[in-house]
Design a protein that fits this description.
The protein is of the alpha/beta class. The protein has 14 helices and eleven strands.
Length: about 400
């Protein structure tokens, strides 16, 4: 498949399909709806008395009287009910007479004036406060905190000392997506100080300086663990890139799509000797001195996208002669008339393990270059779109060989 010129890191789709809800809930919902009437706009529609109207029709009910009805509650004798809603008139008079004989005159007057409620409220029994989080281990609480959005962890840290400590745990900050944001001074240093592993800053504006002297990442003894970095179409200065790459020496995947660089930036990037995937698509400022630093130190590169970077002819020649033998996927599209057959022969010699090669819009290569490409035994994808100098006979020759 064709190499994409988009960012190395892709946003995670977190939408959840409704059909994946628990089976028990789906079964319960279907049972409840099966018995509902078929709704229509017909005038002959008959509504169900309970389901459609929501409440049953109120009808007068006869009140049964009992000789033993009393204002004293049988289950809780300390409470009395003087509302007398369910008493017969005879029983009501008896209970009132009993009440008057047992209560003081002042109490009766307060009842008559409405100062006391006819239904005494139950007493509130206080129970000791229990902190159930104390019974949970730190590991369990950290699993709970992983479901909380990152911008709420600051509020969680203000709850107590324990939560403040757990909210700073590195496991909660391994992934950060701050795309389409304006990153103020020192904010990038704060993220790196939390030992983030995967950081996405696509289309973000990063204000210089990204790291402040008061932050832990600033000191030499700090070992930054950042491994995957996406700066696709980000607005970041060359000085900020240099500060960032000088502190991040463990990068494996990097996207600098449509970002302006220079030789000093590539020299700082060369400190990441374990780089495996680099996306330079539409990057500006790549030249021979910077590539010398990069290709001399980063010999584990497997995937390289350097399409539409408008490289000079000398830079293209140097690139084709010095690419690492570990290269597996290469996108050199957009070189126009600057990539020739000789450069492609050098490329095939340096990268014998290539499986995917994109040479679209390289209009200077001819049928001789196709014969060179056939030497790549592992090649399973080749893009030659708009390479008009290649005649159809050369393509038939390559097809016959394969």
């Amino acid at each position: 498949m064709k190499m994409s010129s988009h960012g190395v890191l892709s946003p995670v789709d977190v939408n959840i399909d409704e059909d994946r809800s628990p089976a028990s809930k789906r079964f319960k919902y279907s049972n409840e709806t099966e018995n509902l009437p078929n709704w229509s706009l017909s005038n002959e529609l008959e509504l169900h008395e309970v389901i459609d109207q929501g409440v049953k029709k109120l009808e007068p009910e006869t009140v049964e009287t009992h000789e033993d009805d009393t204002i004293f509650k049988k289950d809780r004798p300390e409470f009395i009910d003087v509302s007398c809603h369910s008493m017969s008139p005879q029983t009501k008079q008896k209970q009132i007479a009993l009440l008057e004989s047992t209560l003081t005159k002042g109490t009766l007057e307060r009842l008559n004036l409405g100062e006391w409620s006819t239904q005494s409220e139950p007493s509130m029994r206080t129970s000791p406060k229990i902190n159930y989080f104390n019974s949970l281990s730190d590991e369990v609480i950290l699993q709970i905190l992983t479901w909380i959005p990152k911008n709420y962890l600051a509020d969680v840290s203000l709850t107590c000392k324990r939560f403040n400590r757990l909210a700073q745990d590195e496991s909660l900050w391994t992934r950060m997506d701050v795309s389409n944001r304006k990153i103020g001074k020192g904010r990038l240093g704060q993220l790196l100080s939390k030992q983030v592993l995967i950081l996405r800053l696509a289309r973000s504006e990063i204000i210089h300086p990204p790291i402040l002297p008061t932050q832990p990442v600033y000191f030499p003894e700090f070992k930054c663990r950042l491994t995957f970095l996406d700066l696709s179409m980000a607005e970041i200065s060359k000085e900020s890139l240099i500060d960032l790459f000088n502190k991040c020496q463990r990068l494996k995947k990097l996207s600098l799509e449509h970002v302006s660089v220079n030789d000093t930036v590539l020299e700082a990037l060369a400190g990441n000797r374990d780089l495996e995937v680099i996306n330079f698509a539409m990057a500006i400022g790549i030249a021979v001195p910077g590539l010398q630093y990069l290709l001399r130190n980063c010999r584990k590169i497997r995937e390289l996208n350097i399409s539409w970077t408008y490289l000079a002819q000398s830079t293209i020649k140097f690139l084709c002669e010095n690419l690492p033998s570990t290269l597996d996927r290469l996108n050199l599209s957009g070189c126009r008339k600057l990539l020739n057959d000789a450069d492609l022969a050098s490329l095939v010699c340096c990268c014998p393990r290539l499986r995917e090669l994109d040479l679209s819009d390289c209009t200077a290569i001819t049928g001789e270059a196709v014969k060179q490409i056939t030497a790549l035994e592992d090649l399973n994808f080749l893009a030659l779109s708009r390479c008009y100098a290649i005649c159809h006979r050369s393509l038939l020759y390559s097809w016959w060989l394969y």
